Amino acid sequence: MPVDRDRIEERTEDALRRAVAARDEALAIVSHDLRNPLSAVQLSTRLLGELGLDERARKHVEMIQRAARSMSRLIEDLLDTVAIEAGRLALDVRPELVTALLGAVSERNEPAARDRGVALRATCDVPDVAIRADRARVIQVFGNLIGTLLTFCRAGDAVTISCQVDGDAVEFAISDTGPGIDPGLVPHLFEPYWTAPPNVRRRLGLGLYIARGIVDHHGGRIRVEARPGAAFVFTLPRAR
Question: What contacts 24, CB < 8 A, 6 or more positions away?
Fold first, then answer.
């Protein structure tokens, strides 16, 4: 009996579609159901922190708060991943002045850099240029990229944000003076479920995949460069 290859391929593709849809639905349900108990944990620890606890108890409460914040970020990352893969990431695109945006990025990320002993600097030679962007999502992109560089930076290193006009776009570069990135890892950094080799002890999570998805949805491009140190470079369309 002859094999109907077209029929087999059709069934295989249909099975893959159902599997992806089931996975996305499961992620969305789990993430949603985790939010309520997590909110209760965050509220309770905040109230505990107002009770004047002794030093030992306060440290335990702070540890719970850090863990709850990490879980909250993971839930948001999972939901963003599902939205990006389904092509339905919502954006509120408006004109945004580059200098104001970089000011907000610096303010948001400077505490994390300071905690690691890393200097965070932002320079902008295009003070009157605006981009078309979802402000919150672009700040999220910067946070994910800066956070990745901070993961590998050493105390005393620096992370620098710069920008320049590139035709109808503005190009942003975030570079560091850290140990750099193994060129063999570069092709895989934006993959969502890539497993790093055993010698890479730091997990990158979904942050880079989400950053790429947000930039793509804006109509921009993103890449990583293995310079002396490392750099992420991405573009966003200029506002007219």
Answer: 82, 85, 86
